[in-house]
Specification:
This protein is mainly alpha-helical. Helix content is 78%, strand content 0%. Helix 1 (3-26) crosses helix 2, helix 1 (3-26) runs parallel beside helix 6 (127-144) and helix 2 runs antiparallel to helix 4.
Length: 226
């Protein structure tokens, strides 16, 4: 194997690992920057990959998905591709939401593993290494949120005290608006058979609802702090 590609593939894993270790160890603003950057990058990758599949390759993302329409059709996997597309779209929304970013990171781990082993078994050059780097960043997000994640791994001895904790939820109208927006985005992603314009328009409407809910919640929090 040529030394240049080998070095590039190694850096695809080493650089994310070093960035993760440094950010988590140093903490402070560097850790916050790392977390925000990873959520934005991984969320955008998932959104792009999902839209690419659901739009019959008409809406390209930041990274070409390992399963394009031709590959899926050739192997009779169109329905599977739609499922993966919706899953990627949902994971992207969760990561970008901030509030549900931990859930998005948890779901992203099996997604990356699925892509790694699929591309590895298909002998795709480079993609398994690049995706492994993204998996390292995802593990960094999980380590960052370990104080919350630990309750899934090690249930508390006093479960009643944990149940007594108040949940950090938004006012009911904001909650309903956010979930409505998410449902419109997911539902709109399945409308490509109607037309690409209908799909894009419906998803933009859902995105506007999500942004509206986020802005509304931010406004209410600012009012409470005054």
């Amino acid at each position: 194997m040529n030394s240049a590609p080998t070095l590039f593939y190694a850096l695809c894993i080493v650089l994310p690992a070093v960035a993760t270790a440094v950010a988590l160890a140093v903490g402070g603003w560097l850790r916050r920057l790392y977390v925000i950057g990873c959520r934005l990058l991984l969320g955008a990758l998932m959104l792009g990959g999902g839209l690419y599949k659901l739009s019959d390759n008409h809406l390209p993302g930041l990274m070409g998905p390992p399963m394009d329409h031709a590959f899926l059709a050739k192997n009779g996997l169109e329905i599977f591709g739609q499922f993966i597309g919706v899953a990627q779209l949902l994971i992207g929304l969760l990561l970008l939401s901030g509030r549900f970013a931990l859930l998005g990171a948890v779901l992203l781990v099996p997604m990356w593993l699925n892509i790694i082993f699929l591309t590895w078994s298909q002998h795709w050059t480079g993609t398994p290494f690049l995706t492994t780097g993204f998996l390292v960043l995802t593990m960094g997000l999980l380590l960052h949120d370990y104080p919350r994640l630990k309750w899934l791994l090690y249930p508390p001895t006093d479960a009643g005290a944990l149940r007594a904790q108040r949940l950090a939820i938004a006012p009911l109208p904001v909650e309903l608006l956010w979930w409505l927006g998410a449902a419109v985005v997911i539902g709109g992603s399945l409308l490509y058979p109607v037309s690409l314009r209908t799909m894009a328009g419906t998803m933009l409407l859902g995105a506007a609802l999500l942004l509206g809910a986020t802005g509304w919640n931010y406004y209410l929090k600012r009012r409470q702090q005054q």
